[in-house]
Design a protein that fits this description.
single chain, 275 residues, mainly alpha, 0% strand, globular
């Protein structure tokens, strides 16, 4: 028993130390936002501000377009979430439950596209969006993010697990395919849909590379790209940069705290598919 207690104590200590090491950069960034700039750049390590100030947050909230960046992020992330979930549910249902020419081909194409890293397609995305003349628009930001094969795969797997008796009974009662999807299959998988919607929204909100390349107008930037616009006449202001970063991360942190179980479920689903 003593040996088991000792092992448990060691595991607990290692876990606590790991948590502290993981959380320290977040703490450091948050504390830095409450420091005047001369304290930030001063040599040495100060774990608490000597002169507490809200000037960094005041500057970000009053002197930048953070409100507009928030709105742009909300519009693009919401649009990506709704479209991806609806497209994935429809595609997953069709491949799982319907018989049509090319069904197996489409399934293998989805599996193949899942194996291609999205950053490898950035140039193709830019050329396509440019030809469609949606560069520097919110639509141009949304378009390439709609490629989400993992959501189709997850839906297909769950639809495969639904007993055939439900479908047969509904078909006998005269239900159409849309009724089958929205009244039987999706209600049985609301947990999965919620989890996928949350993780898709968080991923779209945090995305930086594509919005950074697709948008040059400050009025069309989302919050992650808007961070790069926070500067002054003296160059980089670390306190202000970290303040806008904290404000940018706040909605995602709140969503995660509220829907922690669903987010964890979505991550486990995605990890299970990748594994």
């Amino acid at each position: 028993m003593r040996h088991l207690d000792l092992v448990g104590l060691v595991i607990t200590l290692v876990t606590v130390v790991g948590a502290v090491l993981w959380a320290f950069p977040l703490y450091w960034g948050l504390v830095t936002t409450f420091k005047p700039e001369y304290e930030v750049v001063r040599p040495g390590v100060e774990l608490w501000p000597q002169h507490f100030t809200l000037e960094n947050y005041a500057h970000v909230l009053l002197q930048t377009k953070i409100g507009l960046w928030y709105v742009n992020s909300l519009i693009t992330s919401g649009a990506v979430t709704i479209i991806v979930v609806m497209m994935a549910a429809g595609a997953g249902y069709a491949i799982s439950q319907l018989e049509f020419p090319g069904r197996r081909f489409f399934w293998w194409m989805i599996l193949a596209s899942f194996m291609i890293p999205i950053p490898a397609l950035i140039v193709n995305h830019f050329i396509l969006m440019s030809q469609l003349r949606v560069i520097n628009t919110l639509a141009g930001v949304v378009g390439p993010q709609l490629i989400a094969p993992v959501t189709v795969i997850i839906y297909k797997q769950f639809f495969d697990s639904v007993p055939k008796d439900f479908r047969e009974a509904a078909v006998i009662d005269g239900a159409s395919e849309f009724q089958l999807l929205f009244r039987i299959y999706l209600p049985m998988n609301w947990g999965v849909t919620t989890a996928l919607a949350i993780i898709t929204f968080i991923a779209a909100w945090n995305l930086f590379l594509w919005p950074f390349l697709a948008v040059s107008s400050e009025d069309k930037m989302n919050i992650t790209v808007g961070i790069t616009q926070v500067h002054d006449a003296f160059g980089v202001s670390y306190g202000r940069d970290l303040a806008v970063a904290m404000l940018a991360a706040m909605p995602v942190a709140v969503i995660y705290l509220i829907f922690q179980r669903r987010v964890t479920q979505a991550i486990m689903l995605s990890a299970g598919i990748k594994g």
